[in-house]
Design brief:
alpha/beta; five-stranded parallel sheet
Length: 306
Amino acid sequence: MAALSGRDLLSLADLSSQEVQELLQMATQLKSQQLRLRCNKVLGLLFSKASTRTRVSFTVAMYQLGGQVIDLNPNVTQVSRGEPVQDTARVLDRYLDILAIRTFAQQELEIFADYAKIPVINALTDLEHPCQVLADLLTVQETFGTCAGLTLTYVGDGNNVANSLMLGCALVGMNVRVATPNGFAPSAKIVEKAQAIANNKTQVILTHDAEAAAKGANVLYTDVWASMGQEAEADDRMPIFQPYQINEHLLNLADSEAIVLHCLPAHRGEEITDDVMEGSHSRVWDQAENRMHVQKALLASILEAE
C-alpha cells in the first residue's frame, strides 16, 4: 500500500476503488494474522467528541503495530482555552507521526491537515465517518465473500455515517439505498460525489420509503436518530423517525440471508429493536471488532509499516 504513504484520509472520496480493496485485503490478513507488521511510530488522538470504539480501536491497533499513542484530550490541552487550530496543528506536527481527529466541523479537520505536514485521519466529523465505513465494508465482505453487486439499505438520519456509506458503497461496487424522513436527507454534495463514483454502474438511491428501500436488500443498516450535538432534538425526532426503525417487519422485507449492521452506540427500542440487534442476522459485534483491523491496515499503510 505504498500509494497511501504519508497521505491524509479526510473523506472516503480521498481513496480510489483499488485502494479501498487493498485496505480491506490487508485488514483481512492482519485479522487472520497471515500478515504481521511493525511500526514504531507515535499516533495522537485529538477527540472533541465522546468515543468508545474509535478511541479504543485506534489505540489497540497502534499498540499492536508496536507504536505509541498519546490521548490529546482537548479539555487538558490549550485547544480548550482557545488556541487557534492552525497553531495547535503546527506544534503537534513537530511531535507526532500521525494524528487522528474526532471533531464537529469538517472544516476544522481540513485546517489541521493544511497546517500539519504529518498525515491526518478523520476519526469522525459531522460530515463523514470514513473509518467506520471501512469496517462496515470489511464486515460485508467477510459475510458474502464480496461487496460487488450487493445492495445496502440505510434507514434513519442522513448523517455522517450515511454520507460515508454512499461513498464507500460506490467505491466497492455496491448499490446503496438511503431512506430518510423528509428534511433529513444526506449531504447533496456527498450524494453527487457518490453518484459520480458509481458512474451508473451501481445505484445511489434516496427515498423516504423505508419499506421499499428494504425490499430484497442484502444489508440493512441504521444509526441513532439524534447524533452527538443533537441530543436536544431527540424527543422531537422520535415520532418522525419511527417508520424507519429496523425491526422484524423491515427485516422480513429484505433478502432472506440479509445481515443487519449498526455503528453503535445503539438506542435499543428506538432505531433498532432488541430482538433484531441480538438476532441471527446481526453482525454488529463483528462490525465493531473490524474497526480495529481496518484502522490497523490504514495506519500501517500510511506509516509504511514493515
